[in-house]
Amino acid sequence: MKRYKHIAASLMATAFLATGCSDSFLEVTSPTQEFIDTYYTTDAHIQEAVVAAYDPLHWTDWGMNEYNPVTLMSDIMADDLWIGGQDRTDNQAWHLMMNFEAIPTNVIKGLWSVAYSGVKRSNDVLTYLEWAGENVTTENRAYYTAQVLTLRALYYNWLWKFWGNIPYYDVNLTAPYLAEQLPADQIYEKIIADLDNVISMNVLPMRETSENYGRITKAMVYMLYTEVVMYQNDESRYGKALQYMQEIINSGEYDLVDDYASIFKESGEWNKESIFEVNYTDDNAVRSWSAPLTAGGTVLPTLISPHTWPDGTDGHDQGWGFCPVRLETYERYANNDTRRDATCWNAGALGVDYNKRYQDTGLFLEKYAALTGNNKDQKADAQLNWNNNLRIYRFSETLLNAAELIARGAGSGDARLYLNKVRKRAGLVTELEPTIDNIIEERHLEFVGEGKRYWDLIRTGKASSVLVPDEYGYRTNTWTENKKYLPIPQSEIDAAQGTLTQNNY
User: Fold this and answer.
1) pLDDT tens, 382-419?
2) What does 301-349 look like in DSSP terms, one character per residue?
3) Does position 15 have pLDDT exceeding 60, yes or no?
4) Is-contact 168 156, C-beta < 8 A?
5) With bands split at pLDDT 50, 70 and 90, how would you rate the model's confidence at 31?
6) Stretch 104-132: mean pLDDT
7) What integer pLDDT is reported at residue 266 of this predicted model?
């Protein structure tokens, strides 16, 4: 898309430099380039734009000069991961977030830019489809529209959760590029409206074929819908959310895999449990520090693996020592819970000499750890091109969503079966009653490092009692309701020319 901006600037310069008194000087024809309003009129070029709308999904690990992986950003504000790094000034915005003391001049802002880039690109496709007219079939038009409406909803979901009261636009802006700031409740309704529209179109498959893994599916839309409805505590839509969860369950397209640990291996990508993943690959990957938005691998395993770890020892490579797992998290698991070792790599117990950085516990997130060989096929920078797909939605969450919605009175179904099916896969034989507390605790054990916990604590009213000062002196503040939203980055406040109201922080 950058090259088309350059084209526009070049054409504008040509127009102003032309001479003559007639209007003909305004009729500029480029001998070498094509205007976007004629380029994006074919099916093939619309497909390019759809793919471009997916691209920002890849940028959260490293993009806009920040590390903002959405899963870790959530979990470091919860009670499972420390920040780590060199000290409290290393990625300082993370430390401030964890202690609920973020300020407008020191808060994550890369995620804001990434998400709005996604919104813009999604809106682009809708505009291009208007330009294309009959050049795109009715069937393809619906398929492309369903994808980008869902992507737009997903990008706004990130913004809504982290910042709440945000600028909203569903048609791309023109000068002076200012959008109305809507309160969080209205943003929620906008997200739901897009998802309702997609669902009513009924053009997405419940599960994609292998050549299209990574595209939006009906099951992914259902999961996103249910996530935002449950986070909003919107009881009026619980029944519909439960219906969608049971539709996934009854479709036969998804099921739990037998081995929990296998989910996060390369061989476990897009297994029968996977509903949505963000694809990363090391295969000839050329993503580099000078071109971080290039498609390829991910830096996440480098971020979270132990510093100066001898490469290959215990099948792991070294990293930068961020996001060590808390000891309390490890101890929450029963000894026979297979999720414990699949989640927490106990590097400290191996007696290996590595640099124990700030907040080190010896425990690292195994789900996305730098496993030896997982970046061997890259062609640019080994630290930035690991092949670990980012898992967003899994079938176990479908089961636990359904169990919780039934427990909340949304409709009928076997909540006990759904809950204990997840537990039995983890090797636990004792069945639990499907109470809200039991289900939330099971979500806690199931999704460590997957970006669910913080939002669960907020929506269930547990945040103020769980997110309190710790015995180590790392978190000294208690979460309060006015900490639900991060402060809007000051750079965005300044750019908005007085049209943005800062969140209460």
Assistant:
1) 999 999 999 999 999 999 999 999 999 999 999 999 99
2) HHHHSPBT--TTGGGB--B--BSPBPHHHHHHS-TT-THHHHHEEEGGG
3) no
4) yes
5) low
6) 97
7) 96
Give the integer Cα–Cα distance in Å for 383 and 318. 9
Buried b (16+ CB within 10 A) or exposed e, 182-192: bebeebbebbb
CA 324 to chain centre: 20
Q: Nearest Cα to 44, choosing from 167, 160, 108, 132?
A: 132
Supply the DSSP string of 116-157, one letter for each residue.
HHHHHHHHHHHHHHHHHGGGS-HHHHHHHHHHHHHHHHHHHH
What is the share, in percent, of the chain residues with pLDDT greater than 70?
94
Could you tell me the two tokens for 404?
Answer: 């919780």
**Confidence at residue 268, expressed as pLDDT on a 0 to 100 scale:** 98
pLDDT (0 to 100) of residue 33: 74
Q: Classify strands 390-394 and 274-278 as parallel, antiparallel or unpaired.
A: antiparallel
- Half-sphere exposure (CA, 13 Å, Cβ side) for 52? 19
Backbone phi, then psi, for 290, in 5-degree steps? -85, -15
What's the residue count for the chain? 505
User: Tens of pLDDT along 239-251?
Assistant: 999 999 999 999 9
Contact 183, 199 (CB under 8 A): no
User: Looking at this protein, which amino acid is placed at residue 264?
Assistant: F
Q: How is residue 217 written in tokens? A: 């599916």
Q: Is the peptide bond before 31 cis (omega within 30 degrees of 0)?
A: no
CA angle 410, 413, 417 (to 5 degrees): 125
117-136 in b/e burial notation, b at 16+ Cβ within 10 A? Answer: bbbbbbbbbbebbebbeebb
User: 8: which 2 tokens?
Assistant: 């526009």
Say how many Å lie between the first and final Cα of the chain, rounded. 36
Calculate the average pLDDT of the chain.
93
What pTM was computed for the model?
0.93
DSSP states along 205-270: -SS--GGGBTB--HHHHHHHHHHHHHHHT-GGGHHHHHHHHHHHHHHSS----S-GGGGGSGGGTT
**How many C-beta atoms lie closer than 10 Å to residue 358's C-beta?**
18
Q: Which residue has the tokens 């290959």?
A: 312
